[in-house]
Design brief:
Blueprint lengths: L2 H12 L18 E9 L3 E9 L1 H31 L6
Antiparallel strand pairs: 1-2
């Protein structure tokens, strides 16, 4: 093997497979909303829930819920429109 080829192979082996990120991702210090819920069912079963949400998380949840409600409204509207056009025959 030539010296140039050996140098290229050595340089390629020293390179990281994944390049470093251009910008470091940081989590801002946002105030978080917290909630705790504890439910006891009888003597032997219990459920404990702890929730922590940031303002960005609340916004994301609001976007998801509004998307679900809007899509459900479109489906209901389409179903009712077809029902008015072709009603079911009486039994």
């Amino acid at each position: 093997m030539g010296k140039k080829k050996e140098a290229r192979l050595a340089a390629a082996a020293a390179m990281p497979i994944v390049p470093p990120p251009l910008v470091e991702a940081t989590v801002p210090d946002e105030p978080a909303q917290t909630a705790e819920l504890e439910v006891h069912i009888g003597r032997h079963a219990a459920l404990r829930l702890r929730l922590r949400l940031t303002p960005a998380g609340i916004g994301a949840i609001a976007g998801l819920v509004s998307g679900i409600l809007l899509s459900a409204a479109v489906v209901v509207h389409a179903a009712r429109r077809d029902e008015r056009r072709d009603p079911l025959p009486p039994f």
